[in-house]
């Protein structure tokens, strides 16, 4: 543990038992942070409880000379988020950053998507983002500092087939993070999003290709888009080195880091006498069609290989 951008600080990382969350927790610890490693150890569908993944991450951090404590509460419940923050305060005396990386999938083509599948995904991703941010907010306000990092996704920012619930949650997180950034800026609290590209259980589970095609794709992602390549950006955004950076959406893929645009008006139509349906039908398609955002998928927007 030779780096110190997070020295003396305490961070809570949800979903830190595996994948991106695991690597973020380890990276934060390597930068000097004490870490609450939160993970239910559930399946991708949110089923079952197994504390061993979180405990293994704690052991790895401690073996490298860092400090960490495992936590098995559910971020989908506000009381669970409160328990995580309480664990940070009781064990390490403060809280300086939260990273919400926990997630589940219930993929389904939209006309077959069940209400419980929609709600379950929103509860972990979007409600979880609110729960952990809100639980930490009073402490951040009182100490006049704090950093929040949320995981969004290109499934929401750009689009993916069969993931309406996941996309809705991830776009909701963007709006939540922006609002937190605006509301909390007076207290020196920052909130940002990362859209990660990394091999993980979630990526591995997405259907749509033959087993052979999927295995070839997975092998490329295992080596070129690794979870440990996401972690430095998250740790940086938690640190004081990111002072003044808030309300932004970043991406990380392989060795690439990029900044996403955010919705702003791009074209305007005006009539002094106002608009009717007929006038819109006559004017709008021809005037605006060239500026429409295409119905692209993530793979259409990122056609180049990560290196």
TrEMBL record:
SUPFAM superfamilies: NAD(P)-binding Rossmann-fold domains. Pfam families: adh_short_C2. Residues 9-205 form the Ketoreductase domain. Belongs to the short-chain dehydrogenases/reductases (SDR) family. This is SDR family NAD(P)-dependent oxidoreductase. It comes from Pelagibacterium lacus. The lineage of its organism: Bacteria, Pseudomonadati, Pseudomonadota, Alphaproteobacteria, Hyphomicrobiales.
């Amino acid at each position: 543990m030779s780096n110190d951008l997070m020295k003396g600080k305490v961070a809570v990382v949800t979903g830190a038992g595996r994948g991106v969350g695991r690597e973020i927790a380890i990276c934060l610890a390597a930068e000097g942070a004490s870490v609450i490693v939160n993970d239910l150890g559930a399946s991708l569908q949110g089923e079952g409880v197994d504390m061993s993944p979180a405990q293994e991450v704690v052991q790895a951090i401690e073996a490298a000379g860092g400090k960490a404590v495992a936590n098995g509460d559910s971020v989908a419940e506000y009381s669970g988020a409160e328990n995580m923050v309480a664990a940070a305060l009781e064990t390490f005396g403060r809280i300086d950053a939260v990273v919400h990386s926990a997630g589940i999938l219930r993929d389904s083509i939209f006309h077959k998507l069940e209400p419980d599948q929609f709600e379950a995904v929103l509860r972990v991703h979007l409600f979880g983002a609110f729960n952990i941010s809100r639980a930490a907010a009073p402490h951040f306000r009182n100490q006049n500092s704090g950093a929040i990092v949320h995981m969004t996704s290109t499934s929401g920012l750009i689009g993916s087939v069969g993931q309406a619930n996941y996309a809705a949650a991830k776009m909701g997180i963007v709006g939540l993070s922006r609002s937190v950034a605006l509301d909390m800026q007076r207290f020196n609290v920052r909130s940002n999003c990362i859209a990660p590209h990394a091999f993980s259980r979630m990526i591995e589970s997405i259907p749509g290709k033959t087993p052979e095609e999927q295995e070839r794709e997975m092998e490329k992602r295992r080596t070129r888009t690794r979870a440990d390549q996401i972690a430095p950006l998250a740790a940086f955004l938690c640190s004081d080195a990111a002072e003044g950076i808030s309300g932004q959406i970043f991406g990380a893929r392989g060795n690439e880091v990029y900044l996403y645009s955010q919705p702003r008006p791009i074209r305007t139509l005006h009539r002094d006498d106002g608009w009717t349906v007929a006038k819109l039908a006559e004017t709008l398609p021809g005037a605006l069609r060239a500026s429409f955002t295409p119905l692209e998928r993530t793979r259409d927007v990122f056609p180049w290989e990560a290196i």
